[in-house]
Amino acid sequence: MTMDHEQAFVTLATNDSYAKGAMVLGKSLRNHKTSKKLVVLIGPHVSDQSSSVLHKIYDEVKLVDVMDSGDTAHLAMMKRPDLGVTFTKLHCWTLTHYSKCVFMDADTLVLSNIDELFDREELSAAPDPGWPDCFNSGVFVFRPSNETYGKLLQYCTVHGSFDGGDQGVLNGFFCDWSTTDITKHLPFIYNMSSIAIYTYLPAFKQYGANAKVVHFLGQRKPWSYTYDPKQRRVRGEIQDATPHPSFLVDWWILYSSEVVPLLLRAYGDLPFHSGCEEGVAQHALSSMTSEERKQKWEQGQADYMGMDSFDNIQKKLDVFLK
């Protein structure tokens, strides 16, 4: 039996937006009591503040910069500059101090303990909702190996990616997934696309309650919206193809309650946009005395997004003028 410390959940954050996703994912794994290590690969565009928060949530934060590495990845990159983020993701195979890992995209959210995924073999993944003969690369089980890493890079350089991203590369490389071994087909509840809910609503009603991982596929990510913590309402143009509202709210509840306080601490006096309307940022500021607040105003550091927003000042004025 392999030891838990030799196994890890791995994710990737290429910028501060995806870092927010990684923070929520890490918290959701911890809250559901995973016994595995948590690893996040970060790109060079992730800020020091985001990095310091990730260090509080993850056991290992590893900077991967394909552009700077003098290894085979760099050579591959020269030939295929279009696959930059893909090469960064493939770095997960270099985590050879772990015997087995589960990769999860930063736009996933864990709804219950999923440690049983480590009973599966490489390469296990769930079918893609758009083309079920392909697996979706948002959640997959793999075995770190420098040999596999080298072969993947070589494959990339020669064949490229049929969809321009890592999913095309991985499906090309692990091309027998759809036909060979059904135990490598993860049930859809381990990578339930928020878009698929709408395309087959009866199935969602039948099986959705068992979902263990929700994946916010599509252009708009949870962090692209804004959130009103008081009313627990997500705002933004919610169209048909948007994530099932309750999962989106679940993401925001976790982000606003457990991640934003860490971010506010990391940013200190620097401006930081949390995406939360009033609410959270306000709680952090309402502990300020009126004297401290007056000083902030005089130094030109009014909290324009929260307590001192135009709407709030207008409300105050309305009360006085009435």
TrEMBL record:
EC number(s) reported in the record: 2.4.1.186
InterPro entries on file: Glyco_trans_8, GNT1/Glycosyltrans_8, Nucleotide-diphossugar_trans
Reaction equation(s) it catalyzes: [1,4-alpha-D-glucosyl](n)-L-tyrosyl-[glycogenin] + UDP-alpha-D-glucose = [1,4-alpha-D-glucosyl](n+1)-L-tyrosyl-[glycogenin] + UDP + H(+); L-tyrosyl-[glycogenin] + UDP-alpha-D-glucose = alpha-D-glucosyl-L-tyrosyl-[glycogenin] + UDP + H(+)
CDD domains found in the cross-reference section: GT8_Glycogenin
MF (Gene Ontology): glycogenin glucosyltransferase activity; metal ion binding
Pathway: Glycan biosynthesis; glycogen biosynthesis
Keywords: Cytoplasm, Glycogen biosynthesis, Glycoprotein, Manganese, Metal-binding, Transferase
Subcellular location field: Cytoplasm
Primary location: cytoplasm
Cofactor (UniProt): Mn(2+)
Single GO cellular component term: cytoplasm
Main EC class the enzyme belongs to: transferase
A GO biological-process term: glycogen biosynthetic process
Function noted in UniProt: Self-glucosylating initiator of glycogen synthesis. It catalyzes the formation of a short alpha (1,4)-glucosyl chain covalently attached via a glucose 1-O-tyrosyl linkage to internal tyrosine residues and these chains act as primers for the elongation reaction catalyzed by glycogen synthase. Glycogenin participates in the glycogen biosynthetic process along with glycogen synthase and glycogen branching enzyme. It catalyzes the formation of a short alpha (1,4)-glucosyl chain covalently attached via a glucose 1-O-tyrosyl linkage to internal tyrosine residues and these chains act as primers for the elongation reaction catalyzed by glycogen synthase.
Family, similarity comment: Belongs to the glycosyltransferase 8 family. Glycogenin subfamily.
Protein name according to UniProt: glycogenin glucosyltransferase
Species of the source: Triplophysa tibetana
Lineage: Eukaryota, Metazoa, Chordata, Craniata, Vertebrata
